[in-house]
Design goal:
The protein has two domains: about 5-280, Metallo-dependent phosphatases (Purple Acid Phosphatase, chain A, domain 2, 4-Layer Sandwich); about 290-410, no CATH class. The relative contact order is 0.11. The protein has helices spanning about 25-40, 60-75, 90-95, 100-105, 120-125, 165-185, 305-310, 335-345, 370, 380-395, 400-410, and strands at about 5-10, 15, 20, 45-50, 80-85, 105-110, 115, 120, 125-130, 135-140, 190-195, 230, 240, 240-245, 265-270, 275-280, 290, 325-330, 350-355. The chain is α/β, with parallel strands linked by helices and about 425 residues long. Strand 4, helix 2 (about 60-75) and strand 5 (about 80-85) form a beta-alpha-beta unit.
Length: about 425
């Protein structure tokens, strides 16, 4: 009998997009997840971090999480859920109801737990069983590594990587070594919530998170004798380093950058000590349109005709209306491009997801490398702010914007 496991991550329950709730989309995703678990006779779920979108999830967000886990546990008495905290999650609060969660087969790991002998395997090593009670694999559940979770390593003598990278490597090597001492050569699934070198990130969607200011780690921190590494944090489904190190990706677009992604969950199958996997596509609960993409951007005058072509249904409830992000060409607007776009979108059954200004590609005189380089120290902070504001909004900041900028700058100083 084969063991089947669903790998998912980056739910971000409670997230909003341009002020719009995503609760309906999460509800539909969790229904899909339960249906997939039933259809494929899944035995376990591995959720690799970022259950919630912020450190203080609302009561509604927390309730939605518990309902989702309960629906999965209802599939079969032996079903096991393994959930780890990501950088967005309130780690302590996430695992606080652990005693109750354990009794229904849901194991939550928010922080790294240690004993005098190393990692507390009773907290981190979770057996996965098929319906007949046979253990076919274990999950080594490692959450997002906060500074307090990392072991101390020497700052000298090792040429590869910074102290932080070496500390993360030591954390995983010690954990796998301990797990192997307990379970032998049985298949081991390891979780991680971090950025691995070479993986593609979503601009504006994921924070660069590794502790100590470090951005990413090499895939070599994960021992080659583990069967699978279930990663979270990056929102695009992808492999990195080797076939068995994978990001499952987010369940639906969390930002406009993710609009073209094909979101999925990963189905693992363990049989006779070997592991195979395949991606299972997810249906997008709400349509997400990016208008003007791949062109020079739209003019405000052209936007209504493009919206009309979408043939939108005006009977759709507000929380199910499609998102629309507009790429605009630079143009003059009396009240501001964002305001003008919002006014236009109010006449359609859509939810505005923001705008981008498409910078025109121009051919100018050749600029030498020396002339093109400008030291940041030679620029005033206000000039940098004005340039960034104009790049995003297509117009200069107003006095009110500058006042807020100076107020924020003063607080930093």
């Amino acid at each position: 009998m084969a063991l089947r496991v669903l790998h998912t991550a980056d739910w971000h329950i409670g997230q909003t997009l341009n002020g719009w709730s995503r609760a309906f989309e999460h509800e539909q995703f969790f229904k899909q997840l339960a249906e997939l678990a039933r259809e494929h006779e899944v035995d376990a779920l591995v959720m690799a971090g970022d259950v919630f979108d912020n450190q203080n999830p609302s009561a509604d967000s927390t309730r939605q999480f518990y309902e989702a886990i309960a629906a999965l546990q209802d599939q079969t008495p032996h079903f096991t859920s393994v959930i780890t905290a990501g950088n967005h999650d309130p780690a302590g609060r996430l695992e606080a109801p652990g005693v109750l969660m354990d009794r229904v087969g849901a194991h939550v790991v928010g922080t790294v737990h240690r004993t005098g002998e190393g990692l507390d395997l009773d907290q981190h090593l979770v057996p996965l069983r098929t319906a007949d009670g046979t253990i076919h694999a274990h999950v080594l559940a490692i959450p997002f590594p906060r500074a307090a979770d990392l072991p101390r390593v020497s700052e000298e003598g090792e040429p590869e990587g910074s102290v932080i990278v070496r500390a993360v490597r030591a954390l995983y090597q010690d954990a796998v070594s301990q797990a192997r001492a307990r379970i032998g050569d049985d298949p081991l699934i390891v979780t991680g919530h971090l950025h691995v070198w070479g993986a593609e990130e979503s601009e504006g969607a994921e924070r660069r998170i590794l502790v100590g200011g470090e951005h990413a780690i090499p895939h070599s921190v994960f021992d080659e004798n583990v069967a699978y590494v279930a990663l979270g944090h990056l929102h695009k489904p992808q492999r990195v380093g080797r076939d068995t190190i994978r990001y499952s990706g987010s369940p639906f677009p969390m930002s406009v950058t993710e609009q073209p992604y094909h979101h999925s969950v990963t189905l693992l199958e363990v049989e006779n000590g070997g592991l195979t996997y395949r991606q299972i596509p997810l249906e997008r609960p709400v349509a997400f349109h990016r208008l003007g993409r791949g062109e020079e951007g739209l003019s405000l005058d052209a936007l209504p005709a493009v919206l009309d072509e979408l043939a939108l249904d005006d009977t759709v409830p507000l929380d199910q209306r499609p998102f629309v992000h507009v790429d605009l060409k630079p143009q003059v607007s009396g009240s501001g491009l964002r305001v003008e776009v919002d006014r236009l979108l109010e006449n359609y059954p859509v939810r505005g997801a923001g705008i981008s200004i498409v910078s025109p590609v121009t051919e100018g005189p050749e600029i030498t490398e020396a002339a093109a380089l400008v030291r940041l120290s030679d620029l005033e902070p206000e000039d940098l702010f004005k340039t960034a504001f104009a790049s995003v909004h297509g117009e200069e900041p107003e006095a009110a914007h500058l006042e807020l900028f100076h107020r924020a700058a003063a607080e930093i100083e």
